[in-house]
Specification:
The complex is a heterodimer of chains A (493) and B (114).
Chain A (H helix, E strand, L loop, with lengths): L6 E2 L2 E2 L9 H8 L14 H6 L2 H4 L6 H18 L1 H8 L12 H6 L6 H16 L8 H14 L2 H8 L7 H5 L6 H14 L5 H13 L7 H19 L14 E4 L9 H13 L4 E2 L11 H4 L1 H17 L4 E4 L4 H16 L3 E4 H10 L9 E7 L3 H4 L6 H10 E5 L23 H7 L1 H8 L5 E3 L3 H13 L5 E3 L1 H10 L7
Helix pairs in contact in A: 4-5, 4-7, 4-11, 14-24, 16-17, 18-20, 20-24
Chain B lengths: L3 E5 L2 E5 L13 H11 L13 H17 L5 H8 L3 H7 L3 H9 L10
Antiparallel strand pairs in B: 1-2
Helix pairs in contact in B: 1-5
Classes of the chains: A alpha/beta (493), B mainly alpha (114).
C-alpha cells in the first residue's frame, strides 16, 4: 500500500491518523480490503420466499455464470445509454478517488470509484474486441476464452459489496459518472445469478411476510404503539393516539420499522407532530416501512416494495402519504412512489417537509428550544438523490439553541459507511472506518449531537462514534421536535 | 456454507451463520446457558460466559415478549420493564440488547436497519 497523505481542512495530516484506533487500522487494511467479503445467502427457503428463484436465470456453474455475466454487460451497454457512457467516458483523472469514503477507509485502489468501475470496464473493453464473426471465428473464440479467463467474479462481488451507492463520486466527477448506478446494475446481475447477502435477503423476506423490514406483526406494532403513547402521556401529560388501520384517513403515515425497535424517540416525534397539527391520520399495519432494500439490489424488488406503499394509500383512501425518517427509502419514494401516487391524485411528502412547513406557518407551537449544540449529517440519498436539504436544517435551527454547519455538508456530505445494504456485521471493520470521516467532520464542529433523519445512520453512527471514542451522541430530527414541543430533555426522549 | 449445531440433552440444535437459533422454538434454558458462553459478561470482573441473575432477568423478559409478539421488544421497553439501565445491559451483554441478549433469548438475528 502506498502511504497517501490526505489534505483535510487545510491540515496535511492523514484523516486515519486522527483516530485513536489508527494502529488497528494498520493491522486490518495493510493489504487493502479484499479480505472483507459480504456473505452470499445460501438458504433456499429464504431465496424462494423472496422470489429470487423466479429471477434466477443461470445455473450456479462457474463458467455458465461468467458467460451470463458478460452477456448481461453487453445487454446493459446496448440498452442503457448511461451505463455505456459510464464505461466509455472515464479518463482516469483520479478526481473521484479521495472523494470516496471507502477509499479513505481502506486505501485499496479497487475500492475507489474508478477502481471499482474498472473491474467492469476491463471486461467491457475486452468485449469490444469481439467481432462476432465479422473478421474470423478463430480469433473471436480465442478472445472470448481470454476474456472469460480474466474474469474474477469473486473479486467483483467483494468490491461491489463494498460500495454504499452514496453517489459522492458522481457529484465530483467531471463527466458525472455515477458509480452507484454501475453498482446497482452489477448487483442486479448477481441477483439474477441467485446471489444476495443474507442480511438483505432475510430483510426482504420480512417485507414479504409482514410489509416491513423487521417482521413486526400487527399485534407487536400495537403493543409498541401503546407503550409509546403511554410514555408520551407520562412525559407531556397529553393523551395521544397512535392510529393503525383506520378504515379511511386523509393522511397515511409510513414509519421506518426501526422506529418500533431502536428509535422510539422518532416515533414519538411523528405521533406528536401529526396530533398537534390535528391531522386525520393513520398508519397501515401492512406498510410500516419507508425503507426499500430493493433499491440496493434489483428493479423487481424496488418496484414491489414501492407498490406496497401505493396499495396501502389506496386502501386507506388517503389524500396524502407522509414519509417518515429514512434516507435511501426517500430516493425510492420520491422517484418511484410519488409519481405512482400522483396518478391517483395522492400527494407524497416527507415528515421533515411537513414539520418545516408547520414551523414556518406557526402551526406548531414550541415550548422552548432544546439546550444543545447540534450538527447535521446530510444522509446521501436525501442530499444527493432526493433534494431534501434545507428542511431538516430549518427544523433544527428552530428547535435547538445552537446549530453548527459542518464542512462537508449538503451535496458534498460524507457517507455513513453502511448505506447501500452494507449494514452487514461481516463488514464491521470497513463500516467503522468508512463512517469515520463523517464523524470526524461532525466532531470538528464541537457539537454535542450529530443528527440525521435516516435509520441506517441511526444504526451505524453510534457504533462508529463508540469505536473511535468520540464525545458525540446521535439522534433523529423528529426527536428534537418532540423535545422542543414539550420542553423535555432530549436524552430522555 | 457449513451449518453450526450444538448438542443439548442429546438434541441437535441448528444455528445460523451468525450463531442465532435457526428455529426459535428449539430454545430452552439449557440452550440459553450455552449461548451465554459467548454473549454474557460478568459486569464486575469482565469475565465472559458468566450468567448471573441480572442476565436471566433480561433473557426471561425477552423470551416472554418474543413468544407473545414474535419480535424482541423495543430497547426502551426492555429497560423500563426490567429496571436495568441500558448502560448496564451493555455491560452484561457486550454485543448489546438486539444482537447479544436477544440471541441468548433464542430470537433470530434482527433484520432491517439495526
Amino acid at each position: 500500500m502506498v502511504n497517501v497523505k490526505v489534505k483535510y481542512r487545510g491540515e496535511v495530516k492523514d484523516i486515519l491518523e486522527a483516530s485513536p484506533r489508527y494502529s488497528e487500522w494498520v493491522k486490518e487494511f495493510s493489504n487493502g480490503s479484499g479480505h472483507l467479503k459480504a456473505r452470499v445467502e445460501a438458504d433456499e427457503g429464504t431465496l424462494s420466499a423472496i422470489e429470487v428463484n423466479k429471477l434466477t436465470k443461470v445455473k450456479p456453474n462457474p463458467s455458465d455464470r461468467k458467460l451470463y455475466f458478460i452477456n448481461r454487460i453487453g445487454e446493459l451497454a446496448r440498452s442503457s445509454r448511461a451505463f455505456r457512457n459510464y464505461m466509455e467516458s472515464c479518463t482516469h483523472c483520479g478526481f473521484c478517488i479521495d472523494k470516496c469514503q471507502m477509499w479513505l477507509a481502506t486505501r485499496d485502489p479497487n475500492n475507489s470509484p474508478v477502481g471499482r468501475a474498472d473491474l467492469i470496464r476491463n471486461i467491457y473493453r475486452r468485449m469490444r474486441k469481439l467481432t462476432f464473426g465479422l473478421v474470423d471465428k478463430v480469433s473471436d473464440e480465442k478472445e472470448l476464452k481470454q476474456l472469460l479467463d480474466s474474469i474474477d467474479l469473486d473479486k467483483i462481488w467483494t468490491y461491489y459489496y463494498q460500495c454504499t451507492e452514496c453517489r459522492r463520486c458522481a457529484y465530483f466527477c467531471p463527466f458525472g459518472i455515477d458509480q452507484a448506478e454501475i453498482t446497482r446494475s452489477i448487483r442486479q446481475i448477481f441477483v439474477e445469478m441467485g446471489m444476495m447477502p443474507p442480511f438483505i435477503a432475510k430483510t426482504m423476506e420480512c417485507v414479504y411476510k409482514t410489509g416491513n423490514n423487521m417482521c413486526i406483526t400487527k399485534d407487536a406494532a400495537l403493543n409498541v404503539i401503546d407503550f409509546t403513547v403511554s410514555e408520551i402521556s407520562e412525559q407531556t401529560g397529553k393523551k395521544m393516539e397512535g392510529v393503525v388501520d383506520k378504515d379511511t384517513a386523509d393522511v397515511l403515515y409510513i414509519p421506518s420499522s426501526t422506529d418500533f425497535f431502536t428509535n422510539i424517540g422518532t416515533l414519538k416525534g411523528a405521533i406528536a407532530i401529526m396530533t398537534e397539527l390535528g391531522l386525520n391520520w393513520t398508519m397501515d399495519s401492512q406498510a410500516l416501512e419507508v425503507g426499500n432494500f430493493g433499491l440496493f439490489e434489483d428493479e423487481y424488488h424496488l418496484r414491489r416494495f414501492g407498490d406496497n406503499i401505493v396499495n396501502a394509500a389506496l386502501r386507506r383512501r388517503a389524500k396524502m402519504v407522509i414519509f417518515g425518517e429514512c434516507g435511501h427509502g426517500w430516493r425510492a419514494f420520491k422517484n418511484y412512489v410519488v409519481p405512482r401516487l400522483a396518478e391517483h391524485g395522492i400527494d407524497g411528502i416527507s415528515i421533515t417537509q411537513l414539520t418545516a412547513w408547520a414551523l414556518r406557518k406557526g402551526k406548531l407551537k414550541l415550548s422552548n428550544k432544546v439546550d444543545a449544540v447540534v450538527t447535521y449529517h446530510d444522509p446521501c440519498n436525501l442530499a444527493r438523490a432526493g433534494d431534501l436539504i434545507e428542511e431538516p436544517r430549518e427544523i433544527l435551527k428552530s428547535t435547538v439553541k445552537e446549530f453548527r454547519e459542518r464542512e462537508h455538508n449538503r451535496e458534498r456530505t460524507l457517507c455513513c459507511g453502511a448505506g447501500g445494504g452494507l449494514l452487514l456485521d461481516e463488514l464491521m471493520p470497513l463500516r467503522v472506518w468508512a463512517g469515520w470521516p463523517s464523524v470526524y467532520d461532525a466532531y470538528r464542529t464541537g457539537a454535542q449531537y450529530m443528527v440525521a433523519p435516516c435509520s441506517i445512520d441511526k444504526a451505524q453512527f453510534p457504533l462508529v462514534i463508540e469505536y473511535h471514542k468520540v464525545p458525540l451522541k446521535f439522534r433523529g430530527v423528529s426527536d428534537f421536535v418532540y423535545a422542543a414541543l414539550y420542553g423535555i430533555d432530549i436524552d430522555s426522549v | 456454507m457449513s451449518l453450526k449445531y450444538m448438542e443439548v440433552g442429546g438434541r441437535k440444535i441448528e444455528l445460523d451463520e451468525d450463531g442465532f437459533l435457526k428455529d426459535p422454538s428449539t430454545w430452552n434454558e439449557e440452550v440459553a446457558k450455552i449461548l451465554c458462553k459467548e454473549e454474557c459478561r460478568d459486569p464486575d470482573t469482565g469475565q465472559m460466559g458468566v450468567m448471573k441473575d441480572e442476565h436471566w432477568k433480561v433473557v426471561k423478559y425477552l423470551r416472554q415478549y418474543w413468544e407473545r409478539f414474535g419480535m424482541c421488544p423495543p430497547i426502551r421497553m426492555l429497560v423500563k420493564e426490567t429496571g436495568i439501565p441500558l448502560q448496564r445491559i451493555y455491560q452484561l451483554f457486550p454485543n448489546g440488547p438486539a444482537k447479544g441478549a436477544c440471541r441468548v433469548a433464542g430470537a433470530p438475528k434482527p433484520t432491517g436497519c439495526v
